[in-house]
Amino acid sequence: MLKKVDKHNGIPAYIQIINMIKAEIIKGEFQPGSQLPPVRKLQDVFDVNINTVLKALERLKNEGILEAEHGIGFFVSKKIPISVDVMKKIKECVKKLKETHIDLQTILVLFEEVWKNEN
Questions:
Q1: Which part of the chain is the HTH gntR-type domain (predicted)?
Q2: Which secondary structure element, helix H or strand E, spans residue 74, and what is its range?
Q3: 67: left (phi over 0), alpha (psi -120 to 50) or beta
């Protein structure tokens, strides 16, 4: 669910927007090929400057997650780089991690360290 950006959590607003849109795509709320709400509507939902929304959408476009049609809007790419198999593996991993009772922030730090140091 798209919601207001938290302006006090230290994470840049455009990054929060990117993460929210990615989460909605992964959860299936935005299907491949579907159009995102208009930029002005997203501006209202996120409660940020329109340039912040555009920055986030452009980043998602550059990552291949969104496609843009000039004068029409942004669409979820039909070639999303996250496969169903990858999501299945992530869910299995999360389930096992929850069983360890390690808090989310620690797990994120661990993932980041492994990500940086794995070849």
A1: 11-79
A2: strand 73-76
A3: beta
